[in-house]
Amino acid sequence: MDAYRRYGPALLRKCERLLQSRQESEDIVQGLFVDLIARGETRLELPYLYRAVTNRCINHLRYGENRRRLLEQHDVALRGPVRLSIDEQVIGLELLLKLMERLDAKHGEALVYRYFDEMGVEEIAELVGTSRKTVGKRLARVQAEVKALLANLGADNTANGGAA
Amino acid sequence: MSAPLSCSCALHEPLSWLTIERYQLGELEGARRSEVAAHLEQCPCCRGCLEQIAADARDLPPLPAAAPRPRRVWRSRPARLALFSAVAAAAAVVLVALLLPRVSPPPDRVPPRHLAGFKGGELALALVRERQGAIQHDPERFAPGDRFKVLVTAPPVDPPLHGRVVVFQAGGAFFPLQPVELSGGNREPLPGAFSLSGPGPALVCLAVGDRPEALRPARLSRPRPAALPADLELVCVPLRPAR
Questions:
Q1: Which B residues 57-116 touch A at CB under 8 Å?
Q2: Quick one: which of A44, A66, A132, A154 has the fewest CB in 10 Å?
């Protein structure tokens, strides 16, 4: 499948930034393409695949067993260089998992696009098919949750990394 | 735990990873491509991201065009019974005929209340086989070197149930994948993959219970599915060795 050869590496890198696990990222990307092949979908573009794999990663992060395993085995080097943070707080895996417990799917998706894929508001709005205003509201909620978590738990317990 | 590397975009709003990936793939055109090129020239941080992508050579397992999806063999109890009837009527393969009665749950098995949502064929197990790069959905046979992924379809359930893949073969049971939580989904792949060997048929089952302790290997290590504890729900797929 041409799309797999062409876009598979980019999707793996994206999954790895989020999950920080090479094996589990491979499973998710392969699972996505297995399903796409089964459905006969061949005309695929990277933005569409980015969104599809984002939703699979978010679902993966919501399983308790996956969460425990990722926390035990994750490789922080796979997070890659980080260019965006919230109040100088990089969102690492531990903080991400806590946020996913508090956020619904749409807010979780906005969180991933902004702080892991490092997209701008306009790019996120175009990708998910909504307005910039809506994306801005979702990101404001994400930022409020991060601040609330850090205030409750203390930066030392929740941070995976340092300042940007 | 070490911290991830951080850097600051010289132009304040970084290029997204998606944009950099598309730039690297040559998918940006015209003014947008020029904008991105100018950004990369001025910003060492974003340029470093591009260099990291360019240096990341990947060796992906091949995924060729899919074979047509065949009829599902073994999804629910009605399907099992239909298969049993067909096999029994044909009386073709003694081995399969011996295997099937063991697969049917004992008639007195009553699932616990928490598992009631999975009754009536709503819980489904499917396999995907990779053999030398070729993908086969719902395979019927295995050979050494094949790689199997397990896909699970389950209705939404809260709190989540717990599942474990058990492979019965040659009078024994083994557990090729880690236990998982099941909260519902459509053909969700379980983490990991496994291989099979040996000359005899195998039965790949998903055992589902309402607590992790119900799926301890000591409880599941039985010679055949019918001998499993009655508080578990099962869905199975048979596999035969390649001719």
A1: 58, 60-61, 63-66, 69
A2: A154
